């Protein structure tokens, strides 16, 4: 093999490995994500790690969303179907809204049942980066032990989300 062909093969391999890593399902949250605080509906700051510990012992679906997000609004009926099909599961909604007023109005308008928090620095901030949020809505499933069962799902992945919850409920 010529040097040029070897170099091209090396670059191809490097790109493939990088893509695989970026789409990989994580099994634990980063220290940055765990220590980041989110605002609750009473305007208190709560560490993400505390939110996770409050839900330990229950399967938990985390939805990262925003009231301005068309895809998030379009997926609201699906999350309600999910809640009806899996009533023993906890639901945590983390908003990427720019203002608390719009976030709280979105909760009320869409009648979202679950625990609600808002990222302090929206889509481009520390929390979003630590959670690898590059698209919303984004869904993460945590099992009863606190382990990540599904790290990266979007609004087109409800079959995968449902199957993951079905599997966890059998355990």
TrEMBL record:
Keywords assigned: Cytochrome c-type biogenesis, Disulfide bond, Redox-active center, Signal
Instruction: List each copy of the Thioredoxin domain by range.
Output: 27-170
Where does the source fall among the domains of life? Bacteria
The answer on whether this UniProt entry bears the keyword Signal reads yes
Per the UniProt record, one Pfam family is: Redoxin
Is Disulfide bond among this UniProt entry's keywords?
A: yes
The record's section on PROSITE patterns has:
THIOREDOXIN_2
Broad class of where this protein is predominantly found: other
Which compartments does it reside in? Cell envelope
What start and end residues bound the annotated signal peptide?
1-20
Any idea what this protein is called? TlpA disulfide reductase family protein
Q: Which organism is it from?
A: Flavobacterium zubiriense
